[in-house]
Amino acid sequence: MKNIFLTIIIALAFTFANAQNREQLIEKAKSFGALGDDVNAEKVTKQIIALDPKSESNYIYWSNLGTFQRNLGKQEEAIRSYDSSIRLNDMFVTSYANRAKLYSELNMTDLAIADYNKAIAIDPYNENALLDLGMIYVKKGEFATARANFETLLAGHPENYGAASNLAIIKKRLGEYPEALVDFNRLIEKHPGEPMLYNNRADVYLKLQLFDKAMIDIDKALKLKPDYLVAIITKGEIYYEQGDFKNACKYFNLGISKGFQRERIATQMEKCQ
Fold this sequence. Notes:
The protein is an all-alpha fold. It has helices at 2-35, 38-51, 58-71, 75-88, 93-105, 109-122, 127-139, 143-156, 161-173, 177-190, 195-207, 211-224, 229-241, 245-257, 266-269. It has 15 helices and no strands. The longest helix has 34 residues, at 2-35.
């Protein structure tokens, strides 16, 4: 009888010590993660999982491990870690979104889209999934689908800057200039220090042939960010559309000297021979 009680006491003591050690490791992993020390965060997270490999809560740590590995450039290991997380909990949105981001970085676009859609099916207003998925469709040139993702995101999170700014850019690309102008006005009111917004509004004014307003905005963009290549070229385009080819070429050549691709403005550069 004494042996039974002794066995129970030893087992309880071991369980308590194991739990205590696990909590300490979790805190260490959090600290390393906060410091950006992915090497030690990965090491400690593996120890957490190894302490109790059958723990149902390990889906969180497998997901965290995948992110640390992704940060370290261990893509294949990261995918396996995310896979392990999803096998333990196929409703954990974070793992789908993180694996999708990695797939996207690896140009495995179809797999990324599938994972983002799984994340959105679980959490219809997930900010990261909707924004990243929208950006994938922007790169693919599928603006209608991208727009739908951004609009859904804004329905759930009206203040999301990424969705709002990209939606305005899509409207501009689709030729919806008055609508885009309204959006950029609103965004600039909320984010007056963003040079990208002034450049895009300047481009809208340029399309509407409101050259004075376009110039005011592009000068504001360049005041905020003097080496902003796109804004330098936009300023050249404003001069170009007014027939001032001397100043247009000045800014085109300046942009090219700073790294802008000459091929992108080949037609305009014909005036700069």
